[in-house]
Amino acid sequence: MFRKGVIALLMILTAQTRGWLFPKPEVCFNKYGCFKKTRVLAKLPQDPSVILTKFHLFTRGSSQSTLIDDNNQAKLRASNFKIAKRTIFVIHGFLESIKTWAQPMKDALLEREDCNVILVDWSKGAGSGPLDYAQASGNARLVGAQTAVLIKFLISSATGSSGSKNLGKRFYIVGFSLGAHVAGYAGRHLQANNGIKLGRITGLDPAGPLHINVDADLRLDKNDADQVDVIHTDTAGFGTKRAETVGHIDFFPNGGDKQPGCDFDIQDVVSSVSCDHMRATEYYIASVGQCSWKTHPCKSYNDCRDGKTLNCPAGGCPSMGFDADSAKHAGRFYLQTKSKAPFC
């Protein structure tokens, strides 16, 4: 645990000293709005031309993605996007791209549901330096605004210039680590600028560094969508801390910290250190197609393990992952998983 805490601190401290000493107070990017300096260690977003966010649309019956954006009507009309179907955005985290876990997640979602899946590739902004986490954290704010502007564009393209606020319920964002905060920024931007509220956000182990003990505007929060459910798997490392609840429903598999099967391997230090954090993506993918976990409300994980569970809310306890929206509950819920895929 100490090892991961040190690595998380180093990720913050590697931000460029020059940016700390002479910070810009604000940057503005036309339709994406203005961003003010909010925290000492965090940085302002880089220019969109640097981050180069791309939105890859996938639908059933098509093996290839279609690139869409927030201003090209012809490109959108030529795609297979259908506003009548639910649209699920998938957003990766720090030093990642859409080429890893996002691909099997996309495949699982399309097999489960006839929907639009949009993979958000902000890899240029999420890995602007080998350990420049502070810059990636700043860039996440812009990517959230870009995602919000695209959602507004998709709605207005289907309904006319006035749009429909109720169509926001058809949009669902799944974000991992820093991507979970991108989802929160998108939901907040839509509400503040367009009066549109997302239907749902799922945060997969939201990033902790630079997002702990901060104002709700600077992290994923339960007010960012009609339902916000969160899976915590690394509360002692890269994720938010165990004491913090982020959504309406917060799931803590195996206590939310040490995940079974995530043992330290000196021959593969990187994977060992990130294993607990990455399990959130694996659990979610499993929940789409193979697993349905029974969860329990308890005062603590130890109470749950000792059988000291509380009564489930009316209608039953929620399932972790894809089906969490089948029961409208709030609170902290615990469960156990197995050590290997599919974990249930």
Describe this structure in words.
- By secondary structure, the chain is of the alpha/beta class.
- The protein is 33% helix and 17% strand.
- The chain has ten helices and twelve strands.
- It has helices spanning 2-13, 17-21, 48-51, 73-78, 102-112, 123-126, 133-159, 178-194, 269-289, 301-305, and strands at 26-28, 34-36, 54-58, 66-68, 87-91, 116-121, 171-176, 198-204, 225-231, 249-253, 296-297, 331-335.
- The strands form two sheets. It has a ten-stranded mixed β-sheet, with helices on both faces.
- Strand 5, helix 5 (102-112) and strand 6 (116-121) form a beta-alpha-beta unit.
- The two termini are 25 Å apart.
- Residues 15-20 have low confidence and may be disordered.
List keywords for this structure.
single chain, 344 residues, alpha/beta, 10-stranded mixed sheet, two-stranded antiparallel ribbon, 10 helices, 33% helix, globular
